Amino acid sequence: MNFVPHTENDRAEMLKVIGVKSVDELFRDIRPELRARSFNLPEGKSEFEVIQHLKKLSQKNATGLVNFVGAGFYDHYIPAAVDALSGRSEFYTAYTPYQPECSQGWLQSIYEYQSAICALTGMDVANASLYDGGTALYEAAMMAVRLTGKKKIIVDSGVNLIYRTMLYSYTFNLAVEFVETPVVHGQSARDDIFKQLDDTTAAVVLQNPNFFGAIDDHSDIAAKAHGCKALVIEAVYPVSLGMLKSPREMDVDIAVGEGQSLGIPLSFGGPYLGFMAVKKELVRQMPGRVVGATVDKDGKRGFVLTLQTREQHIRRHKATSNICSNEALCALRAVIYLSLLGKQGLAELARVIYDKTEFAKSVFAKIPGAQVKRSSPTFNEFTVQLPKNADEVVCSMIEKGFACGFPLGRFYKGMDNFLLVAVTEKRTKEEIVKLADSLEAMLCA
């Protein structure tokens, strides 16, 4: 069935009005190689043919793999209530809540989400969410530049490379100087950071746990940074906050992170959820929107958009961002997930993950030729040095039914034999032991 309503004559008439002779001429400003990729499409197919084609493509996906891959995105259990509630039509099809009298349900859900993120991070104010963790980190960096009037940002290389790439890409045409510092024994290199800190520094960007899974206490870095009137930005793994020191306890100024682990499926890479929480005195430079609680003329509690620093709402030159649309449905899933767990449940979940990870480390340490890196404490991920190329090991283990981890050589030079292994509450002791046995058999073959 043809769903395109325009005939050849219709298209010819539209092109004539535009003033071009063909579709190719219309897109002549796009480079030919990019144009070919975008518009050189096959002939249309029927609905049945399309479904059959997609089924064949889906069969190429590796199914039934036991997942030990993390690197910022994790395979957590999602309670059925998260899907059931977030899938209700009043949420699933709701429009942006510009009119509070028509949007009290949505506004309250965002308010509760903000409250949950503040409770999780210990910070004063959270916004209504951002696209993803990388976008949130970039927005935090821009906040620091605006607030301090400085241009230098120190970035710990233990920060996820995906986030760092987004940060550098978004700022490519801006006069911002980035200085990367290494990690030492898996943690932030204090000497290098302190050496770079000076009166021109806008912010120090950190991550906890970092990309290697290492846990750190950044309180000393925060104290030094504040002495130079620089801000501290920390990307955090939200589930780990059921056990670890919160950003506020380390005196961090801006806490950001990827909220995928809060009830959002991996789903081939999205949609995901970026969260941001800040100290109260920084709120007016926070991007996006903030929902607040108030009372109406009859004294009844209600919810409104309290702060909107987007260019659609205020003068363009005063806007804090133009890429700050919130991920409201993903934020809803996050607050439902956190509500189902509760404070004690989150702490218990973190403890289960930590204990299973420690068990996995002890099992992997017995594999001949494999060395578990133990120079720093870890939460749910740890690094293993293998006697073979980690990329090759990962490909071989796929055939045995395991996605056994992330090969660090893809992101870090000189680490071709290093594997990052992630454990969540879904991984059983039997799966961990079986993975270790399969890996040992493959390495010793």
Features:
globular; 14 helices; Aspartate Aminotransferase, domain 1; single chain; Aspartate Aminotransferase, domain 2; seven-stranded mixed beta sheet; alpha/beta
CATH topology of the largest domain: Aspartate Aminotransferase, domain 2
> Tally of extended strands?
17
Q: In terms of structural class, how would the helical and strand content be classed?
A: alpha/beta
Examine the secondary-structure arrangement and name the CATH architecture of the largest domain: 3-Layer(aba) Sandwich
Percent of sequence in beta strands: 15-25%
Give the termini distance in whole angstroms: 55 Å
Gyration radius, rounded: 24 Å
Structural commentary:
This protein is an alpha/beta fold and 445 residues long. The chain has 3 domains: 8-54, no CATH class; 66-76 and 343-444, Alpha-Beta Complex (Aspartate Aminotransferase, domain 1); 80-338, Type I PLP-dependent aspartate aminotransferase-like (Major domain) (Aspartate Aminotransferase, domain 2, 3-Layer(aba) Sandwich), CATH 3.40.640.10. Helices cover 38% and strands 16% of the residues. It contains 14 helices and 17 strands. It has helices spanning 8-18, 23-26, 32-39, 47-58, 80-86, 89-92, 104-121, 133-148, 161-170, 190-196, 219-227, 328-364, 390-398, 429-444; strands at residues 66-67, 125-126, 152-156, 177-181, 183-184, 187-188, 201-208, 231-236, 254-258, 274-278, 289-295, 301-308, 371-372, 381-385, 402-403, 406-407, 418-422. The chain has a 7-stranded mixed beta sheet with strand order 2-10-9-8-7-3-4, with helices on both faces. The protein has a 4-stranded antiparallel beta sheet with strand order 13-14-17-16, covered by helices on one side. Helix 11 links the parallel strand 7 (201-208) and strand 8. The longest helix has 37 residues, at 328-364. The radius of gyration is 24 Å and the shape is globular. The termini are far apart.
